[in-house]
Specification:
By secondary structure, the chain is an alpha/beta fold. The chain has helices spanning 16-31, 49-59, 85-90, 101-106, 111-123, 136-140, 144-159, 184-201, 203-208, 219-226, 243-251; strands at 5-9, 39-44, 64-68, 93-98, 127-132, 167-170, 210-214, 233-236. An eight-stranded parallel barrel has the order 1-2-3-4-5-6-7-8, surrounded by six helices. α3 links the parallel β3 (64-68) and β4 (93-98). The structure holds phosphoenolpyruvate. Residues 9, 171, 176-177, 214-217, 235-239 line the site of phosphoenolpyruvate.
């Protein structure tokens, strides 16, 4: 049985004051009781990881943890501006996003680079959240499964059975930050296609890997999405900025 995992992605938002208020509000809300057997996390910008780590430790809820939004593909050395996986581990991160569509689009990240990043995250004892998804044009021309299969195939080629220790986030680009959520059935169909592709490689890996959905998840559509058999949780962007909305999604 795969646990439901809900991860917030603040992107490039926040401040010391806003973050402190967010974590305190979410903690207080979660202390009132949460559905059993779920995991929650928030991916904060790099400069705020130390602050959020402390706040989350102070709150001491075993099911709430910290994540990061990116990582270097290199272990250490002369890579100015990069952040190593070992540093994120020291900041108590449990999850690290790799290959978010904003990084693929704005920073020309390739599937090969993303797989290298995922390896770094695994080697440091954390869980990579490997983001995949098609553009509106790719879906409108009927190529969405082919595109996502191509992205997954590159991860399988590099990560092999270590994929069992990863999460995959299916995030259709047309749904990210647009308010245009994929219907629960559209999302389920792609999650199923991903799981079947993983099963072509290894049945155990396919049944272990959590596949999260991301793209305009809100409190009012989360219940239907999370009820789907191959949707194992969500990656939440815009709605995670509001602690009450994030809480409502976590309780969905
Ligand atoms: C994201 O950026 O990962 C995301 C899913 O954003 P949003 O929820 O705002 O669509």
């Amino acid at each position: 049985m795969r646990p439901l995992i809900i991860i917030g992605n603040w992107k490039m938002n926040g401040s010391l004051a806003v973050n402190a208020d967010w974590v305190k509000t979410v903690c207080r809300g979660m202390e009132q009781g949460m559905p059993a057997g779920r995991q929650y996390a928030v991916c904060a910008p790099f400069p705020y990881l130390a602050q959020c780590s402390q706040l989350i430790q102070d709150c001491s809820l075993a099911f709430l943890s910290l994540g990061a939004q990116d990582v270097s593909a290199f272990e250490s050395g002369a890579y100015t501006g990069e952040v190593a996986a070992s540093m994120l581990k020291e900041m108590t991160c449990k999850y690290v996003l790799v290959g978010h569509s904003e990084r693929r689009q704005l920073h020309q990240e390739t599937d090969e680079l993303i797989a290298e990043k995922a390896l770094q995250v695994l080697d440091s004892g954390m869980t990579p959240v490997i983001c995949v998804g098609e553009s509106a044009d790719e879906r409108n021309s009927g190529r969405e499964v082919e595109v996502v299969r191509g992205q997954i195939a590159k991860q399988v080629a590099v990560l092999q059975d270590r994929l069992a220790d990863c999460l995959i986030a299916y995030e259709p680009i047309w749904a990210i930050g647009t308010g245009q959520v994929a219907s629960a059935q559209v999302a389920q169909d792609m999650h199923r296609a991903i799981r079947l592709q993983l099963a072509e490689f290894d049945g155990d890996v396919a049944s272990h890997v959590g596949i999260l959905y991301g793209g305009s998840v809100k409190p009012d559509n989360a219940v239907e999405l999370f009820a789907m058999p191959d949707i194992d949780g969500g990656l939440i962007g815009g709605a995670s900025l509001n602690p009450q909305d994030f809480l409502a999604i976590c309780q969905a």
